[in-house]
């Protein structure tokens, strides 16, 4: 972490929780002085369109429009992931200003994204929390399983997902979550890809799977509906473009078509 000085033009990321502050739908670009950031605490988190991108801590927000990070899914993948990095790091540093072991103040580590306790007898080093979760698309011949969660009741249908528990492999999580949420068993798991998901600090690990056995039995505390859909029929509302969920669905539909 550093304080702004007479820096050249740069991009500036102002964020709180999962909100990002934009000017005309773009990240602010210019000098620190232009945006009233003289003396502000900043952190270089990467390069945005060939210019440095600085995460700004406690920035002035009155002149900027706030949007949710989800609204930026339309951006290029590397840009969206960089915004995720900024949101996750801001969340981490704001919530780790004091040591979790002795309660003393922390300072940012010089050599990596971490904080170190200032107490010389402690010096505990803490790192950003990243919570792994699986997301899986299940295929049965020419059909794909899609679920409607309670939070999207009667709206969007998507894939199954859930957090990895302590002492559990990703594959074990897939089997457990699928059985818990819809009561079926799956086989032939294949890794598909991953996506950082800063709400506030998840990492989505995607899998493709094939149906093995069982009938759909809903976990009613989480799932409103779950159905098998033929790949060539009209599908319900799906997740937005840019999500790993939609990528998994599109890949599964492709496999269904090839099965036909």
């Amino acid at each position: 972490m550093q304080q702004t000085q007479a820096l050249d033009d740069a991009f500036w990321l102002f964020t709180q929780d999962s909100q990002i502050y934009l000017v005309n739908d773009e990240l602010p670009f210019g000098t620190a002085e232009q945006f009233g950031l003289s003396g502000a605490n900043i952190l270089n988190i990467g390069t945005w369109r060939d210019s440095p991108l600085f995460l700004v801590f406690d920035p002035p927000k009155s002149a900027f429009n706030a949007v949710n990070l989800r609204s930026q899914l339309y951006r290029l993948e590397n840009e969206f992931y960089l915004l995720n990095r900024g949101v996750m790091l801001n969340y981490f540093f704001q919530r780790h200003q004091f040591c979790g072991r002795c309660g003393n103040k922390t300072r940012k580590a010089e050599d990596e994204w971490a904080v170190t306790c200032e107490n010389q007898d402690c010096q505990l080093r803490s790192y950003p929390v990243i919570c792994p979760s699986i997301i899986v698309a299940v295929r049965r011949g020419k059909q794909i399983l899609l679920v409607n969660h309670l939070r999207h009741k009667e709206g969007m249908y998507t894939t199954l997902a859930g957090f990895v528990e302590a002492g559990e492999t990703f594959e074990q999580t897939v089997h457990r979550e699928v059985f818990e949420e819809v009561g079926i068993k799956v086989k032939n798991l294949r890794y598909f890809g991953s996506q950082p998901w800063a709400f506030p600090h998840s990492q989505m690990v995607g899998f493709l799977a094939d149906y093995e056995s069982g009938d759909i039995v809903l976990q009613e505390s989480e799932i409103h509906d779950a159905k098998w859909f033929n790949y060539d029929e009209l599908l319900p509302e799906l997740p937005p473009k840019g999500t790993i969920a939609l990528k998994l669905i599109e890949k599964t539909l492709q496999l269904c078509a090839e099965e036909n």
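Residues 77-94 form the longest helix (18 residues). The CA atoms of residues 73 and 80 lie 6 Å apart.
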